[in-house]
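User: ok so my PI wants both of these folded by tonight, can you help

Assistant: No problem, let's get them done. Here's the first:
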Amino acid sequence: MNAPTDLTPRDAVRRYLDRRSTELSESSVRTYRYRLKLWVEWCEDENIERVEEMNGWTFERFEAFRAGQGIASPTLHGEMETLKGHVEYLERIEAVDDGLAKKVHVPDVPESEMSRDTMLRPEDAEDLIRFYRTNDHVYGSRFHVILELAFHTGARLGALRGLDLRDYHSDEQFIEFVHRPETETPLKNQRSGERSVSLLPEVCDAVDAYVAHHRPSAHDDFGRSPLLVTNHKNRVSENAFRSWMYRATQPCVAGTCPHNYDRTTCDFRSHSEASKCPSSRAPHHVRTGSITWHRDRGFPPEVTAERVNASQEVIEKHYDKASQRERMELRRRPHLGKLKID
């Protein structure tokens, strides 16, 4: 290869991902890699051998190809947005003509489709947490503590599983989220994701009970002492954390099954099948419900944003699931008295 214009689509993507890997979290790089893998495979099927062959018609045909496969509108939006960023990189290294990225069409998506409709409803979360707090046989269990921490802090899965015992400050009632990529627990927003988050006494009581009675003593492969530990004395993996959360949020934990299954024989109660329960929720759904709950409880947007490490714009667009009526009643009506004329 004598010039960047001679790059193949595959080599161009490889260079782009190598460059972005220093700026993005591992999970974001994985997402970019998957999206651009589809682009590379399509280019190879179409016999596009060098990036200099790309033009507006190329991008139009790729978008039509992916849309024709019946993928969801937000998925197509994300793929074309990632492709546009890749082409902007190619412009910068002079592998393609300036202005080519403008020819990548990123389709608009209705706001209702862009938002994540599934969440752990705040009222359901409160019922579950009350149950865990008032029943000795589950108090301080791993299911209890991950729900307490996730719903109370609104933190992401990666931030929670990356917590060490040293990051939890019981006496001062707060936890620290720290970016530690060198020992395989990065934060999504890297150093800018680092923060201290205050905890209520009752949340600390639950974590204290977990540490004292339910947490196995353990160290990970890097000599760190994780807060959340499996029965095999390892730091909980992302997949295991998801399974724990699915189990923790099943409504039959605190009441009757809304789907009329027999709790004693229901397959969904097993570790491997919990995600298939129609009412169980993933960590991201708990984060969405938590952010909505924070806002409904009167947390200012800027305080919520700092607490959960997301911009106000992202919270409004993707996480805050309150209806217009709920926003009026819970957030604006309490301020109505300020408008009285004496």
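One down. Here's the second:
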Amino acid sequence: MEKTMQNQGIYIDGSKKEIVLKEMPIPSFNDVQALVKVEYSLISAGTESGLIRNSISQGSGSLNLGYQAVGRIVEKGKDVPYPVGTRVAVYGAPYVHHNQYLSVPLTLMAPLKEETDPKEASFVGLGAISMHGLREAKMQFGESVWVIGLGVIGQLTVQMATFAGYRVIASDLDENKATLAKEYGAELAGTPDMINPETIKKYLGQGVDAVVISAASKSPKLANEALNALRKGGRLVVVGDLPLELTRETMFQLESEVIVTRAGGPGRYDKNYEALAIDYPLQYVRWTEGRNVREFVRLLETGKLNLQGLITHCYSFQEAKKAYEMILSGKEEYIGVILEY
């Protein structure tokens, strides 16, 4: 029986100031949840680095890390339609962490074909987040978008926007990431000294229709610079973690819209939607977080997304401490860091 197997999870222990593996019971599951034995999970480097630093600075607390994974169903509730043995991509804490076993609601999983690369599918959470951010730009075919920040979310946004027929401009402090974005379809990409409101307007002959910020920053300058790149009536979408101290006069002249997106889409943090798997009516909410998860999988399985180039590091589950040390040290370039169980 799977329930006799060991279950461990990856935690940041604030008092010890280190990453630890903690023993935990096999999670229980209800009628709309499945017990999943994890094979791979992707570290969300930006979010998890912030959580780790906060926990260490406070010097206390123990926090289970991670929120996206791929594994196989080993047991399930009676209302889960996928058979035992099905490989699924899963997303969303507190149901999904870097743990060996997870209890995941039906609305937060998507079945995978056997031939689908599980490492690529482990990008599912950041895929849903990227997709939701791009949807909130409310763009139409042929319009232009400036993607700022080319980590995993930024690179996925570039690929999805290119596939959707948008004109993509991309920038990052790291020239190598900008080069990668150009390979993925950005028609103009570079570092901030090359890509800015002036060069964008000169290139397009107007401001961009939308800006998607997937970078993190402690300065309000980034959001205001993005605002200055918009055409009148354009839309600024903030996916990354940064302060918003926007200039009213600029917004008045542009009559622009600003939105801060919340994770993978409608349903996130709603216990009825997640824990009880009570889906929102399609008529009223076209794209929930679960539908974004399934759409990410569809794009992956039909060859619309290229994720191999985003996988830069892979560690065993037992080497998790090394993985986080690499990320936090800043000594190596990385994009996608995967844990193998």
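Residues 233 and 255 are 5 Å apart (CA to CA). The chain has eleven helices and 16 strands. Good luck tonight!
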